[in-house]
Design goal:
Length: about 350
């Protein structure tokens, strides 16, 4: 059974507690709280046209972002489609997935192949030795989210390169989901797309998180031409609406705005982190992304109870009880504006 993600939580709360969706303050979904400025009316004229099989302007914009070629790019209806496409193209075999991480990897692996879960090391670092030991002749993929969801951990570049080498030596593909790299401080950012010419690496990203535009459902993958050709052979054509293609391209052509938004989120995150750490009954893990994994130390309440009590007040958080590798002592909260963050902190203080 597919587990719900943060964005679905808001709709569930709306239905269960009869709260209009626009009245819910969501710390559950991991998109930027800064809403994008997009010229919707400019492209509304394309709504009556079927989408093209290939939309070169957007492919070119993504390729330019990575210094890659158009042949190295595949577009998808969000990175979610590409995750499932990745596993369907791999065929039967094993995928090694360090947990805790995003549930869709394990859900997709369960549908199309077999997953072998390995636990992270201390402080949620990658345990390269444990991953290497798990590799077998059946291994088709190693799957990494970087920075990781829900821990917010940015992994060392050297560790990712080591996993790329392990993948190459064993005939596997390294999938790296970089959706949260936008929120990493600029001096620390890197992309494994730089290594697609040397290693079997497939990198995912999209506009949902940084541009706060998950409703457009536009994501992309970057990889070796042969692998992209293989994925295209499995892909359902025209899964992105025509208007959405134009809007996504307009966003990518304004990367200066994206950088300004990222700086604002990072600034808010630092203040949010310091205030959350002031709540003695919580342990807040450091994060390189735009959210925090939090352990509840107070044994009188668990994550599900805290989620429920906040939901009744129109506040959504992510209950991590259903995430493999975690339990009902953990929640995840996303950075929002200072006023919203204060509202959450005050609500938690009243409940704990």
């Amino acid at each position: 059974m597919r587990e719900p993600h943060g964005g679905e939580v808001e709709w569930d709360i709306s239905r269960k507690y009869n709260i209009p969706i626009d009245k819910i303050t969501s710390f559950a979904t991991t998109v930027s709280y800064i809403k994008p400025k997009i010229p919707v009316n400019k492209y509304s004229k394309y709504i009556h046209r079927y989408p093209p099989m290939s939309f070169k302007p957007l492919n070119d914009s993504v390729a330019k972002l990575y210094g890659a070629k158009e042949e190295n790019i595949i577009l998808g209806s969000g990175t979610e489609e590409l995750i499932y496409l990745f596993f369907s193209a791999l065929g039967k075999g094993e995928a090694i997935i360090p947990v805790p991480t995003y549930n869709s990897y394990t859900d997709a692996a369960a549908r199309y192949s077999i997953s072998r879960l390995v636990s992270h090391g201390s402080d949620f670092e990658l345990d390269i030795g444990k991953i290497s030991e798990a590799v077998s002749r059946r291994t088709k993929a190693i799957v990494i989210c970087n920075p990781n969801n829900p821990t917010g951990r940015l992994y060392r570049k050297s560790d990712l390169i080591e996993l790329a080498k392990i993948s190459k030596d064993n005939g596997a593909t390294l999938l790296v989901d970089e959706n949260y790299m936008w929120f990493v401080e600029k001096k620390l950012r890197y992309t494994m797309a730089d290594f697609i010419g040397k290693y079997p690496v497939f990198v995912l990203n999209g506009i949902s998180k940084s541009f706060s535009a998950p409703g457009l459902r536009v994501g992309w993958g970057v990889g070796q031409k042969l692998f992209i050709d293989t994925l295209n052979g499995f892909k359902t054509p025209t899964t992105i609406g025509t208007m959405n293609l134009f809007l996504a391209n307009a966003l990518l052509e304004n990367m200066g705005y994206a950088e300004k938004s990222a700086k604002r989120v990072i600034s808010s995150k630092k203040r949010f982190y310091n205030r959350l750490r002031g709540i003695k009954s919580l342990h807040v893990f450091p994060s390189d992304a735009n959210f925090f994994l939090i352990e509840i130390l107070d044994r009188k309440i668990n994550s599900t109870g805290l989620f429920r009590d906040l939901a009744k007040r129109g506040i959504a958080i992510r209950d991590c009880a259903n995430l493999k590798g975690l339990n009902d002592r953990f929640i995840r909260v996303t950075v929002r504006s200072d006023s919203d963050n204060s509202m959450l902190i005050n609500a938690i203080k009243r409940l704990l």
